[in-house]
Give the backbone structure.
Amino acid sequence: MSYQYDYAAESNGHVIGLRRGYEQGFKAGEVKGWNKALAQWETEVKTQWEPLVDRLTAERNEAVLAHNELLEQVRAAGQKNKNWHYAFNSLVCALDSAMEVLEHAPQEMRTRMMIDLTNRATYMHSKGWINSLPQQNEVVRSLASKTANQLQGWWDQAVAFAKKTTDRDKNPAP
């Protein structure tokens, strides 16, 4: 009786066993490696990324608060500007009315008014409350040009009247 040994079956079994062993070992190594990588990543997230996120979140919150404060300041300034605009227009209304009456007044009265205006403007300019004579102010010229032009005309008349008076005083008539 001859006994035959099936080497093919042994070879197949050996290969199958190696492959299953490799797969089991690979899977075990893969899971172990994955768990190790995950643990390292979690450590890195906790030590490096979470503080960065916390810092950036705090900075963003501060920036949002600063933005809201600035926005409120802009709103308040806008309201203040609107109030000043109404006040300016009210003053122009009163000034136009007074100038309408002064238009028919004698030159001497208009000259006294311009001298008083100049004295007040000089005082207010020295205190830093205004930057020029009212008729020379850019805002007055742009928003109330009629008023500014009339004041400038009266200013020129007052200066001419003063020069004429000065010349007359210097050169008395015989």
In short: The radius of gyration is 47 Å. The chain has two domains: 7-88, 105-174.
